[in-house]
Design brief:
single chain, about 800 residues, alpha+beta, Phenylalanyl-tRNA Synthetase, Chain B, domain 1, OB fold (Dihydrolipoamide Acetyltransferase, E2P), Phenylalanyl-tRNA Synthetase, Chain B, domain 3, 6 domains, 5-stranded antiparallel β-sheet, about 25% strand, elongated
């Protein structure tokens, strides 16, 4: 919810500055996500009146305007706007003023005519996204006053992030009620008078889906002015709330939604056939929305129809066939209550999210519909004129939400909060929140107001009491608890150790959603059967992840779009696999994603991109805490998400434990990633079974080193050469290292030279040269027999 602070203070004006006000809301559970100070206009941009307009003698498209900004002060300004006309009140940027884009206004001469200023459009003032001409003020706007003061641009927008149970605060009225209750400031009365009928025309309303729509109010307004424009003050309030101005009728419904929290809709009356019906869809069909997009309506979706066709998806969005336009002269205004269950999840299932569905899913005040339609009617008459007809109302009281009484015991309140509040204080706090309070010696009987859907139990009332009293007013007491140490087995590597292993390798930990986009999941793992969510947050978060890679790649993409080019992310989390028909197997994994330079930019080393072997080294470092690195093997493999030739399975003595490789170029391009990405993922269980270090005495006898270089086929992994060598050398081999891999001149194409260093030692005697030579001969023979290796 985004709103203007000035608008909020018209409802309630506590003696608090902006920061104190937003802190008050945040501490009460209405978290303020952001505040943004509006950029004020230069004080030299004022309201002027065009007194005279003449054609420019030397330019067909220019006009020479005489503009008054004071009683006895006229400015001659050359203007090219098509709507410049005598009598209009418009923004005038005087000589010396600076426009928001940085343009400074100077005395100028245009085609031989002197111009002392500039007449401005809303676009040039940064107040509109587009404009066809000069911004026009109301006839009663005072000339000479700065536009900044007239539009009250000394303002701040406040954006709140509300929890789903606080739908009552999705309006200026709702936030104002909270501010009044929290600060004690008086809430200014908001009185809406009934608009008298000037027309007898009305249409019938039939509620077939009574439980889903137990209250529906409508009203015909005839002969509205289709050429009228939304007043500037309303456009500004909509703009500061994040909504764009469309047309007066649409703007009024949006304004009432923001002001009171009641979603409304206006139909073009002349496009309706017969009466209005609220029904549930009987079959699956296509429906064209206001914005021109088509969606598939599933059976049992709540619809607004006439006698011939669907007009709107109830509580979500209207249809194109009955939309108001620049030609609309007669409208039918709708204000209804739809149950939360009827609307919940419907918009998301169609890939939609509207301001209307956002409110109905969280609960709209069932007592608000008549107030909203009277308010909207009055605004429309003031702006577009027209003749309102009688209100048509259908109300099924038995299906409207009822606010039941809740008992609050003083003893329970003190027990939960750990502090004692005076009974009178408790009553005052609850009355501030609009609660009906009946006192008794042991507690209170509370009836919540109609807009508080979240008050159902005693603990809800206790939460409200301390929320308004102030969490910061709870006295601090040190807890009295017994401390018990937890024995950590030496054979277990903790998550903390793994995290530090990654952090020490220059990785950053991320936490991503457990639900991901189905298409991305299948692109990375086509063989997977991801578990679909019954009620996803959005269409691109519809299945449970079978790998941590989708979340990591989304994190890479998010940071790339914010001009980051070096990223090293890791995550520890659960993946979810189908197990049989109904069961789910949760597997904990650790995964990483690396892209960009291998090292931060520096003077001592030339920058190069991180590659497969950099990340392979990181994976090997992960195995150090468990002391099992020497027993891990990397085997080339094929994986649909990884680059051919740059993918490897990771095995230990029990089998496959993970995978490593570069992201496939096709997937990289599809995701819009600018740089290659190297990925890895391992099962946590394979990293947490640690080997306890064993003591071995240092031999008193000298070690003997022998080097051997063999030529093998390029396709033979170096790990296989090492394994065969170690097996052939036997127990006397204490150290084996591969120190050279040569491919070039002197070596046949398709082959490579590998050089290994063998360190031999016995703990009980000095080895003889004959024994060493015998071992080396055995190694060479084994390499030749098993791998076709030849001595170089």
């Amino acid at each position: 919810m985004k709103l203007s602070e000035n608008w909020l203070r018209e409802w309630v004006n506590p003696d608090l500055d902006t920061k104190s006000l937003t802190d008050l809301l945040t501490m009460a559970g209405l978290e303020v996500d952001a505040t943004e100070k509006l950029i004020p206009l230069d004080k030299k941009i004022v309201i002027g009146r065009i007194e005279e307009v003449e054609p420019h003698p030397n330019a067909d498209r220019l006009r020479v305007c005489q503009v008054s900004i004071e009683k006895k002060k006229l400015l001659q300004i050359v203007c090219g706007a098509s709507n410049a006309a005598e009598g209009l009140k418009v923004p005038v940027a005087q000589v010396g003023a600076t426009l928001p884009a940085g343009q400074k206004i100077k005395q100028a001469e245009l085609r031989g005519i002197s111009s002392s200023g500039m007449l401005c459009s809303g676009l040039e003032l940064g107040l509109e996204e587009s404009s066809d001409g000069l911004m026009v003020f109301a006839n009663n706007a005072p000339i000479g006053i700065s536009v900044n003061d007239y539009l009250k641009l000394d303002d701040t927008t406040i954006e709140t992030d509300l929890t789903p149970n606080r739908g009552d605060c999705l309006s200026v009225a709702g936030i104002a009620r909270e501010v009044s209750a929290l600060s004690g400031a008086k809430l200014k009365p908001f009185v809406v008078k009934n608009v008298p009928n000037k027309s007898k025309r009305k249409i019938t309303v039939t509620l077939s889906a009574k439980q889903e729509c137990p209250h529906y109010i409508g009203r015909v307004i005839e002969n509205v002015n289709p050429l009228a424009e939304t007043p500037l003050w309303m456009k500004e309030r909509l703009r500061r709330s994040g909504l764009r101005s469309h047309s007066p009728v649409v703007d009024v419904t949006n304004y009432v939604l923001l002001e009171l929290g009641q979603p409304m809709h206006a139909f073009d009356l002349d496009k309706l056939s017969g009466g209005i019906k609220v029904v549930k869809a009987k079959s699956r069909h296509k429906f064209t929305l206001l914005d021109g997009n088509s969606v598939t309506v599933e059976p049992n979706t709540l619809l607004i129809t006439d006698n011939k066709q669907p007009l709107a998806i109830a509580g979500i969005m209207g249809g194109q066939s009955s939309a108001v336009s620049d030609m609309t002269k007669n409208i039918f205004l709708e204000s209804a209550f739809f149950s939360q269950k009827a609307i919940a999840g419907k918009a998301r299932s169609m890939g939609l999210h509207t301001d209307s569905s956002h409110r109905f899913e969280r609960g709209v005040d069932p007592a608000l519909q008549r107030i909203a339609i009277e308010r909207a009617t009055q605004l429309l008459i003031d702006i577009v004129g027209g003749e309102p007809g009688p209100i048509v109302e259908q109300k099924i009281s038995q299906y409207l939400p009822k606010r039941s009484s809740v008992i609050l015991r003083y003893a329970r309140l003190e027990q939960i909060l750990g502090l004692k509040l005076a009974n009178s204080r408790v009553q005052t706090l609850l009355k501030r929140l609009g609660m009906s309070v009946t006192a008794s010696p042991k507690g209170l009987r509370i009836r919540p107001p109609s807009y508080r859907f979240d008050i159902e139990r005693e603990v809800d009332l206790i939460e409200e009491v301390i929320r308004v009293h102030g969490y910061h007013n709870i006295p601090e007491h040190a807890p009295k608890v017994g401390l018990h140490g937890i024995a950590v087995p030496e054979t277990t590597v903790s998550d903390k150790q793994l995290r530090w292993a990654m952090i020490n390798r220059d990785y950053q930990e991320v936490i991503t959603y457990s639900f991901v986009d189905r298409q991305l999941e299948l692109a990375l793992n086509p063989a997977a059967e991801p578990i679909a969510l019954a009620n996803p947050i959005s269409a691109d978060l519809s299945v449970m992840r079978t790998s941590l890679w989708p979340g990591l790649l989304q994190a890479i993409l998010y940071n790339q779009n914010r001009q980051q080019n070096r990223m090293r992310f890791f995550e520890i989390g659960r993946c979810f696999m189908k197990k049989g028909r109904d069961d789910v197997d949760e597997v904990r994994s650790i995964a990483g994603a690396v892209t960009g330079p291998a090292k931060p930019k520096q003077w001592g080393e030339t920058s190069r991109p991180a590659d497969f072997f950099d990340v392979k080294a990181d994976v090997e470092a992960l195995l150090i805490p468990a002391g099992r690195g020497a027993k891990i093997r990397f085997k080339p493999c094929q994986h649909p998400a990884l680059h051919p030739g740059q993918a490897a399975e990771i095995h230990d003595h029990r089998g496959l434990i993970g995978i490593l490789g570069s992201l496939h170029p096709e997937i990289q391009a599809k995701l819009g990633l600018d740089q290659p990405v190297v990925l890895f993922e391992l099962a946590i269980s394979s990293l947490q079974a640690a080997k306890i270090p064993e003591f071995r005495p240092i031999s008193r006898y000298p070690a003997i080193r022998r080097d051997v270089a063999v030529i093998v086929d390029r396709r033979v992994p170096a790990a296989d050469v090492e394994q065969v060598t170690a097996e052939a050398a036997g127990e006397l081999l204490v150290k084996l290292e591969l120190f050279d891999d040569y491919r070039g001149e002197g070596i046949d194409s398709g082959r490579k030279s590998l050089a290994l260093g063998l360190t031999l030692q016995d703990s009980s005697r000095t080895l003889k040269e004959v024994e060493v030579e015998k071992i080396m001969d055995h190694v060479v023979t084994a390499l030749n027999k098993k791998l076709g290796a030849e001595l170089r």
